[in-house]
Design a protein that fits this description.
The longest helix is centred in the middle third of the chain and has 15 residues, at about 100-115. It is globular, with a radius of gyration of 16 Å. A hairpin with a 4-residue loop joins strand 4 and strand 5. It has about 180 residues and is α+β, with helices and mostly antiparallel strands. Helix 1 (about 20-30) runs antiparallel to helix 2 (about 35-45). The chain has a single domain, classed as Gcn5-related N-acetyltransferase (GNAT) (Aminopeptidase, 3-Layer(aba) Sandwich). It contains 4 helices and 10 strands; from the N terminus they run ββααβββαβββββα.
Length: about 180
C-alpha cells in the first residue's frame, strides 16, 4: 500500500525477517528502552503469531514504523471470545506526527478484518485511539487483568455486534507479562 505524503513516500508492507533488526531498533528508539522490542521478538516465536498482521512502514528501504496485532482471548462466564491485541505500535521519533502510526493502524485493522478477525483491543493514549473508531472497552464489559485507566483501555468491533456477548477479562499470552 502506497501512502501519499507531501514530504516523503511511505509504503506499508508485511514485515519480513530482513526487517527484524530495524524493527528492534525503532521500538527501542520510540519507547526509550527495549521492552516493546523484546515483546515483539518473543511473540514472533510463538505458534499463534500471524506474520500478515505484523506490518512495517518504509521510507525508501528504511523501516520507520511497525505495528503488531496478536491473537488474544476474552474469557467470559460461558466461553472465550477470540480477538486481537494491537501492541505494540511505534514510529521512529523523527517520523512521528506525520500520520505514519495512523496509517499502520488503519492498514492493520483492514488486514485483520480481511483475515476474519472481529475485534481488536488496545491499551493506549485516550486522545489517540478513538480517532480510529476505538471505544472504551468498558462499554462492552471488557476488563484487563492488570490496572489500566478506563480511558486508556479500548476495543473496536471489526464486525457489527462482535463483542455483544463477550463481556469478560482479556487473557493476554504470557509473553506480554514477561516483556
Amino acid at each position: 500500500m502506497l501512502v501519499p505524503n507531501v514530504e516523503m513516500k511511505i509504503t506499508i508492507e508485511v514485515e519480513t525477517e530482513d526487517d527484524y533488526k530495524q524493527v528492534t531498533r525503532l521500538h527501542t528508539l520510540a519507547f526509550n528502552g527495549d521492552r516493546e522490542a523484546k515483546l515483539v521478538e518473543k511473540l514472533r516465536k510463538t505458534p499463534a503469531y500471524i506474520p500478515e498482521l505484523s506490518l512495517v512502514a518504509r521510507s525508501g528501504k528504511a523501516v520507520i514504523g511497525h505495528v503488531l496485532f496478536y491473537p488474544i482471548k476474552i474469557k467470559t462466564n460461558r466461553k472465550k471470545c477470540s480477538s486481537l491485541a494491537l501492541a505494540p505500535v511505534s514510529v521512529i521519533p523523527r517520523f512521528q506526527n506525520k500520520k505514519v502510526g495512523g496509517t499502520l493502524i488503519r492498514e492493520g485493522l483492514r488486514k485483520a478484518q480481511k483475515l476474519g478477525f472481529k475485534s481488536v483491543i488496545v491499551v493506549g493514549h485516550p486522545n489517540y485511539y478513538p480517532r480510529f473508531g476505538f471505544e472504551k472497552a468498558s462499554k462492552y464489559g471488557i476488563r484487563a487483568t492488570f490496572d489500566v485507566p478506563d480511558n486508556a483501555f479500548f476495543a473496536i468491533e471489526l464486525e457489527k455486534n462482535a463483542l455483544k456477548n463477550c463481556s469478560g477479562t482479556i487473557e493476554y499470552p504470557d509473553e506480554y507479562a514477561e516483556a
